[in-house]
Amino acid sequence: MTALGFLYPGHFAEDDYPRIEQLLGSDIRVDLVHTELDEDAHRVDALRRMGAAERLAEGVQQLRLAGAEAVVWASTSGGFVYGWEGAQDQVRTLARTAGLPASSTSFAFVHAVRELQARRVAVGATYPADVAALFADFLRAGGVEVAGVHDSGVMTAAEAAEWGEAEVFALARVADRPDAEAVLLPDNALRTAAYVAALEKELGKPVLTANQVSVWEGLRLADRRVNAPELGTLFTREPLVQV
């Protein structure tokens, strides 16, 4: 049994994680600890507070007691708003605090794009334009070419969590670009685990979503390889990239 630990801010689309655990169909346990959220807002200042080291440290002990072998900060925007170097510091601090390998969803996206050997991606973001632009900047800092960014102006995670299948598919369609080799849908408040395979079939290319890549990143940190086609192309490639 491999136990993966995730720090998830608030209560929005956390039901993606037991769904992913089930779809993995393996001896993988996904443990989720909810971190405190003093303000639900897709604003840079609020997102930086959400990802503060002391906020993340509060949930680490619970994951360690659960036997987690790796920990992932499961918030895309709570990482990239710090910029590339700041997000690296965030993850290093988390690793020291936990005494475990650690990463975040922001880095998971970059590592997953590399795993797919995609050179150019399109981004479909729920976020307002300024926050979506910061995600694109983060990807570029990681060596990923961004063909286009579609922002949706959603100001809270609660609103994103209300989106269903129709809204997720519409976002992916409008974000896609002919020259993009993959489509990225950041926002861990967006439920996507049930739709990844169907999204890829419709778009004809890999689709990476926040909770999907978060779990993949946890597996990568734990040096586990799991084939789960229902979770998309990312989960059908072996061996996993080691960065």
Automatic annotation (TrEMBL):
InterPro entries: Iso_Racemase_Enz_sf (IPR053714), MaiA/AMDase (IPR026286)
Recorded superkingdom: Bacteria
Name under which the protein is recorded: Decarboxylase
Organism: Streptomyces mangrovisoli
